[in-house]
Specification:
The protein is mostly helical. The chain contains eight helices and three strands.
Length: 312
């Protein structure tokens, strides 16, 4: 790929639009349950419902940020970054992971505290909580299906982490629905307070552990992409070989930058050309160097930038 290829199309294609709409749908579905969850959770005095409302609020905010970023990427508004948007996506993914991990830790401590000192709960409110969690489970399934259909090609890091997060949320919401259901039945049957408290604490702790696990998983995936490494000697030799093969075709080698981000190699080469050479000739040389390097280093992102040398 040469420098001209950096300019992204002004209008997103249908696949890009599907990704944007799937994230927007997920956000809207989350927004639809936040207020009911919070109201019912406070009315029923159930920590799990309140925690879910807080988690959903945080996730909606992050998802909206990701949606804005994804729209900018699809419309070519991030081309000023030399190495594309991979780092931006990974920073966003890392933010989701850290937020979920912090909330997961808080949930576990809060659940243990509630288990140690059970509080009285409202039976009617617990019935409403059971209905709400069942509805939320269905909404999560709808959102996951939409995200999966739009991002199953795996070409977007943002979509990949969204699908993974929503799948984890679907599992967690199923556990929450079961825990709330047991808690509600215990209240209706006037069972021992410990039964409902145990169900709620168990469900809340499970959700917290799942969120911490997701945080660790996202961290492990994102950090290598954010910490650049030097190319190994073999791939550096491949760069020298490609430049040597076309040594007579360009007039000066002005710069070579290379790095590894995650599992992908990035190579940025600047070639100098005398002012009298034609644009077509310069483009042919740049394309040839980029093509040879891509063949020598499969999967690498190669940018060849032609620069006019000063006269004289």
């Amino acid at each position: 790929m040469n420098n001209i290829d950096r300019v992204a199309p002004a209008f997103p294609d249908q696949a890009a639009l599907r990704r944007e709409r799937s994230i927007l749908l997920a956000c809207l579905l989350d927004l639809a349950v936040i207020l009911p969850y919070l109201v019912i959770g406070l009315y029923a005095n159930t920590l799990t419902m309140v925690a879910e409302a807080l988690r959903a609020s945080l996730m909606v905010g992050l998802e909206l940020v990701l949606l804005v970023m994804l729209r900018r990427i699809h419309r070519g508004e991030t081309t000023a970054y030399d190495y594309g948007v991979g780092k931006m996506e990974q920073f966003a993914n890392l933010a989701i992971g850290v937020a979920m991990g912090a909330l997961g830790v808080w949930l576990i401590f809060a659940a243990l505290e509630r288990w140690g000192m059970p509080e009285e709960q409202n039976a009617a409110g617990m019935v409403l909580a059971g209905i709400a969690t069942t509805a939320n489970l269905a909404l999560n399934a709808i959102a996951l299906r939409a995200l999966w259909l739009a991002g199953r090609d795996g070409t977007s890091a943002i979509m990949t982490v969204q699908i993974r997060s929503r799948a984890v949320k679907l599992i967690a919401s199923a556990v929450v629905a079961v825990a709330i259901g047991i808690n509600a039945v215990a209240e209706l049957l006037h069972a021992a307070t410990r039964v409902g408290a145990l169900a709620e604490a168990g469900g809340t702790i499970f959700v917290g552990l799942v969120m911490i696990q997701l945080c660790v998983s996202v961290w492990r995936e994102a950090v290598p992409h954010l910490l650049d490494r030097s190319l190994d000697e073999g791939r550096q030799a491949s760069i020298n070989r490609a430049l040597a093969e076309h040594f007579a075709s360009y007039d000066a080698l002005l710069g070579v930058r290379s790095r590894i981000a995650g599992k992908r190699a990035h190579v940025d080469i600047t070639l100098g050309f005398e002012a009298g050479r034609t644009i077509g000739e310069i483009q042919t040389v740049a394309d040839a160097v980029a093509r040879d390097l891509t063949d020598l280093i499969p999967g690498a992102e190669v940018i060849v930038t032609p620069v006019a040398l000063p006269a004289g």
